[in-house]
Queue: 3 jobs
Job 1
Amino acid sequence: MDRTILQQAQALYTDAPWRDRYHVAVRRALCPFERLAAFVPSTGLIVDLGCGHGLFANALALEAPRRCIVGVELSTRKLLAARATQSAALTPAPSPDCGRGETVAGQVHFVQGDLLANPVVGPCRAMLLIDVLYLFTPHQQEQILCMCSERLEPGGVLVLKTMDTLPRWKSALDRLEEWMAVRLFHITLSGRSPLAFRPLAEWAALCQAMGFETRVVRLDQGYYHPHAAVVGLKR
C-alpha cells in the first residue's frame, strides 16, 4: 500500500472530533498498515474485526475498489466516527448486502458487534484481527479464531496482527501502553480479565491447529513496538 492511500484515508476524518482525529493520527503513525495491506486480497469480502475508527478499512477500500470491506466494532464512539467517513469517502454508498452473503465491490460498511458474536455471515475472502485479541481471555481467543476459520471460504486468508513478546524491552513498553489505554484512560473497550498476550510462535501454532497454513512475519523494523503478524491460509 502506498503511503498516500493512508493519507487519503486519514483525510476522511477531517470533521471528526479532535479526540478521534488524534487517535487516528497516532494509530497511523505507530502501526505498519502499509506492510499489512500486502497480505490482504485485492478482491472479495474483507472483514476487519475490531476495526476501531475504520482507518485501515477505509484505506483498503481506497487501494482496491474491487474489495468489499466490512468493519466490525464494539465501541459506539469509534463506530460513529467510522460511519461519519462514509459520506466523505470516494467509494459508493454501502449496500445492506455488503457482508451478508453477497460481495458488492468498492464499498465500506461499518457495523456494531462483538468479536465473539461476529454479525458478518460470509463466506469471507479475508478476516483481519489487527491488535485486538489480547483484549480477550485465552479461551475466547480460540473461539474467535475458530469462528474465523468457519466463516472463511476455502483458500481464504486470516491476517492476525499482534505484538510479539520479544524483544523484551519492546514488549514491556507495549504492555505498559496497552494497560494505560485500556485500564487507565479507557480508550479501548475490554472486560475485567487480564490482558492476554501470547508469544508469536504460540499464535502460529494455534492458527495451525485451527486448520490454517501459516507463515510468521516480523513487522517491527523501524518501530519501537514488537509488531508481527501470522498470516493463515484456510486449507
Note: Strands lie at 44-49, 67-73, 107-112, 124-130, 152-163, 212-218, 227-234.
Job 2
Amino acid sequence: MSERLTFVAVHAHPDDEASSTGGTFRLLKDQGVRTVLVTCTNGEYGDDTSGLKPDHDEHSPEEVALHRRSELEKACEILGVDRLVMLGYRDSGMRGWPGNDDPRSFWSTPVDVAAVKLAAVLSDERPQVIMTYNEFGFYGHPDHIQANRVTLAALDLLDYEPTLYYNAIPDSVMEQYRARWAEEARQEAEERRARGEEVDDSPGSGPPVDENGEPIRMGTPDDQIGAEIDISAVNDAKFDALAAHHSQIGDSFWMKMGRDRFRETMTKEWFVRVRDPHERSGVVDDLFVDYR
C-alpha cells in the first residue's frame, strides 16, 4: 500500500512510553512505520535527580520536569520515535494528592479542552493505529485515566476511524510477575536480616483501588488480549530506553534484572483491541496486520 503507516501512542508521563510500548515503538520504526509519541504531562511529581520525593520541601517540580524532558528525548532517540509531542499539562500526582486539584494539572483540565489539542495532532498525523490506557489507567493513576478519556474524546472529533488499542498484561503473565516479585522481596529480606538490618514485615498499602475503594485488576483476562507483539529482537532498545529514565527507573525491578535477564523475560508486549474498523477477531502479532 502507498499510504504512509503511522502509529501514535498517547502516554501520561515521561517514561511511560518505554515501559509498555518501548519494544513496539522500536519494532515498528525498524519496519518503516512512522512513530509518534504524545506525552500528556511534564512529570513534575517524579523523584528528583537525588531521589527526593515530591513531598520533600526541597523537591522542585520545575527542575524535575526539565530533567525528565531530557530523559524522555534520549529515550525517544533510542526507540526511534519520529515525533514527540508534549501537551504540556502539569503532572497531577497520585490519586488523592493535592496536585489533583491544581488547575494546571492534566486531571483538572476539562476533557474536551485537552481532546481538541490531541485531535489536532491526530488530524495532522492521521495514524491508522492509536494506543493508550484503559478506563482505569491500567493501575488507577489520575493522569492515565485522563489520557484514556481525552483519547476517546479526541477520536470522536476525527473524520475517520483508526484502530484503537489499550496496553495490557495478561492475567497469566501478571501472576508470574507477582510470584517473582514476592520471591525477590523474600530473598532481599533474608539478606538484610543476615546483615543484621531491621526489616519491615508489614503488609504495606495493598493493591491500588478505584474511586469506590475497589481493588483495581491490573491484569487483563487472557481471552481479552487482541495483540501479542514479539519484541525479543528489539528488547535491548527497550532496556536502554528504560535506563534513559534513570531518575525514575534506576532502582526499578527492570533495572535490577540486568540486561541478560531482561532479554530472557521481557520478550512481549500485549494490547487489547478496543476499536477496529476491520472488525478483526482473535490475537494478532502485528498492530498493522490489516493495513500493510
Note: The chain is about 40% helix and 15% strand.
Job 3
Amino acid sequence: MAVALFDILPEVFALDGGSSYMPFAAIGFLAFFGLERYTALHRSREHVHTATAHEQELGALSAAGLTFHSFLDGVAIGVGFQTSTRIGLLIALGIIVHDLSDGLNTVTVVLAHGNARKRAMFWLAADMIAPVLGAASALLINLQGLLPWMLAFFAGSFLYIGASDLLPEAKEHDSPLVGVATAMGMLAIYLATRMLRSL
C-alpha cells in the first residue's frame, strides 16, 4: 500500500493529465478483486471432503488463477523498471513480500481439493516462475506509451492487495506490535521513496 501511495500514484500524477489515468487505478483494484474473489470461492471450501477428479481440477484451476495473478505481479515489476530503477525496486520489494503468502495460498488450495503433494509442488513452482516471466515479458516489449495507464492499474491492484489480504491478516493478531510494525513498514517505504528521489 505504501508503494502505491507514496511512489506509484505520485509518479502518475506528475505526468501530464495525471488525474485522467485514475480510472485505471479503479480498474486495477476491481480486476484483482475479481481474480481473488474467484480463487476465494474455491479456497473457502478447505474442509475434509471426498476427493474427486472434479474437485481436483477445481483446485488446479484456482492455482492457475493465483499463478496468473503472480504473472501480473511480474508485469508490474517490469513496468516499474521501464519507468525508473527506483520504482522498479520498490514495486519488486512490495511484490516479494506479498508473493510469500501467494505461494502458501497456491499450495493450500491445491491440497485442499484432494490433489497429490507432487501436483501442489508443480503449481508452487509455476507460481514462483510466473513473476519472472511477467517481468521479462514487460521488459521485452516497449510499453512506454502504455506506462501511465499500467502504473495506475498496478497502483489500484496494490491498494486492493494491501486492503484485502495484508491488513485483515494483521488485524487478526492481538499484539499491539502488529500495528506498530504496520506503521513502521509504511514509514520505511515513505523514507525510501524520499531518499531514492534525492539521488
Note: The chain is about 85% helix and 0% strand.
